[in-house]
Amino acid sequence: MPLSALDFAAIRLTLELASLTTLLLLIIGTPIAWWLARTRSRLKGAIGAVVALPLVLPPTVLGFYLLVTMGPYGPVGQLTQSLGLGTLPFTFAGLVVASVFYSLPFVVQPLQNAFEAIGERPLEVAATLRAGPWDTFFTVVLPLARPGFVTAAILGFAHTVGEFGVVLMIGGNIPEKTRTVAVQIFDHVEAMEYAQAHWLSGGMVLFSFLVLLALYSSRRFKPGLS
Amino acid sequence: MSFSLSRLCIALSAGLLACAAQAGEVQIAVAANFTAPIKEIAAEFEKDTGHKVIASLGPTGGFYTQIHNGAPFEVFLSADDATPERLEKEGAIVPGSRFTYAIGKLVLWSAKPGYVDGKGEVLKKNAFKHLAIANPKTAPYGAAAIQVLAKLGLGEAVKPKLVEGANIAQAHQFVSTGNAELGFVALSQVSKDGKLTEGSGWTVPAELHDPIRQDAVILAKGKDNPAAQALVDYLKGPKAAAVIKAYGYDL
Questions:
Q1: How far apart are CA B221 and CA B71, in angstroms?
Q2: Disulfide check for B84: which of A204, B29, B35, B215 has CB 3.0–4.6 Å away?
Q3: Model confidence at A222: pLDDT above 60
Q4: A14 pLDDT band (50/70/90 cuts)?
């Protein structure tokens, strides 16, 4: 196999990025999805739209805004600098932040669907059995929404692995820090190293197919995000 | 009366035909670093000849792949001389059409006024966090930047601080947004009429790196298009030369 050490480093980095992003998204996305599923607030439409934005925005828009706002003159950049964290572009942490935005709808929407599908009844029953809200959430909602969590995790992970434009715009192509597989493939094609590009691209096709196959073969999954 | 009318018709249709034959269209692929000058040159070319230029701007390596896969480009303005040479060897261009249309100049540039001194000493002080370059594997300006660092004996010292843009346009973007304090960019990106448009810079002496020759070719697809030939002739002419020089290229 003509893959180099740098290619394997890119694969490892991509898997680390996708794993960490998925974990964070499940933590951040669960309360957002729960709120969206239960609220009667007039803000529901607006928050739902903001969460769905990365579905329709070109990654270049996200990448450009992140580069500007997280840079030394941007508001986020000035905050991170005053906290002694430096600036986020060109760092692994920066990629994680970008990926969380980029893959947010892929995690929130399946969770929201799963929470909505549970309905009022099980929660009312739990309440009559004197379960508190936290108790209800962990012993009733989480088990019932399990398929939603599986779908959300798979989609969030796979979508982050497939991220390219945002990483290209804020990453700076640093080996073992910000050079993901998608960027590495772009480099190989640019440098006319087609053999390596083929190996990595073929691997991506196979990986993506297997992930979706697992997802679509599971009986409880209904295709479509919303 | 009827006689003269038909003569008028013939004269008119002949005129239309002549117009159609003259005012052609040429589809070109242009290296990202030449964006600003080609816009100006194309506008003047269109005004002077009536031909229309449809320009795609992008990375040289990407264009190479696209050309080999049926892209409709008729003229290619590369960011280097290696890619056109390769296309020539592969028989993908009109034989003998390759020529150098500009020689790129490298500048160490910062968006901050006064940050880069006139001798590039700021590199040796090494007090910055990020130094932006174009990808040295694929972009000639990036390869030249690496040669400069090696010549100055700083290759290893600044290596951990290098951030790569996919092309020279992105390297410039990293510096102009302040995410990298300084970077090696094309002089054409930051100067007009011999002066820096903003920030501070050090024009790297040409002997510190191999010349950045930017070659153009007429591609096989443009073989029978007079507009393609006309554009190439125009690029070699004095009007284009003035624009190219004004943007900080050598000829």
A1: 9
A2: B215
A3: no
A4: very high
| Residue recorded with tokens 């992105």 | B170
Say how many C-beta atoms besides its own lie within 10 A of residue A112's C-beta: 27
Return the pLDDT at B240: 96
Q: Are strands B106-110 and B75-77 parallel, antiparallel or unpaired?
A: unpaired
Annotated binding residues of B, written as ranges, equal: 60, 168
Query: Percent helix, strand, coil in chain A (nearest 5)?
Result: 75, 0, 25
Inform me whether the pLDDT recorded for B209 exceeds 90: yes
Q: Which residue of A has its CA nearest to B132?
A: A172
| Shortest Cα distance, chain B CAs vs residue A7, angstroms | 15
3-state secondary structure labels for all residues of A39-97: CCCCCHHHHHHHHHHHHHCCHHHHHHHHHHHHCCCCHHHHHHHHCCCCCCCCCHHHHHH
Q: Are B65 and A189 within 8 A, CB to CB? A: yes
Average pLDDT over residues A75-83: 93
What is this structure's pTM? Answer: 0.81
A192 interaction partners in chain B (CB closer than 8 Å):
61, 64-65
Give the closest of B59, B64, B163 to A172, CB-based. Answer: B163
Mean pLDDT of all residues in A77-88: 91
Residues 123-162 of B with CB under 8 A from A: 129-130, 132, 135, 137-138, 162
Identical fold for domains B24-103+212-246 and B106-203, yes or no, is yes
A67·B177 Cβ contact <8 A: yes
Domain covering B106-203 in this structure, CATH number: 3.40.190.10
Domain ranges, ordered by start, for chain B:
24-103+212-246, 106-203
Which residues of B define the annotated binding site for molybdate? Answer: 60, 168
- Which chain A residues are within 8 Å of B130, Cβ to Cβ? 90, 172
ipTM surpassing 0.85, yes or no?
no
Residue of B89, B175, B177, B184 to mutate for A, most A C-beta atoms under 10 A: B177
Q: List chain A domain ranges.
A: 5-217
Tell me the average pLDDT across A120-135: 90
Is the CB of B178 less than 8 angstroms away from the CB of A73?
yes
Answer for the pair A145, A33: CB distance below 8 angstroms, yes or no.
no
In the prediction, which pLDDT does B113 show? 94
Answer yes or no: are the C-beta atoms of B212 and B140 closer than 8 Å: yes
Domain A5-217 carries which CATH code?
Answer: 1.10.3720.10
Return the pLDDT at A69: 93
Domain over B24-103+212-246 is classified CATH 3.40.190.10: yes
First-residue to last-residue Cα distance in chain B: 59
Closest-CA residue of B relative to A86 is B129
In 3-state terms, what secondary structure has residue B133? strand
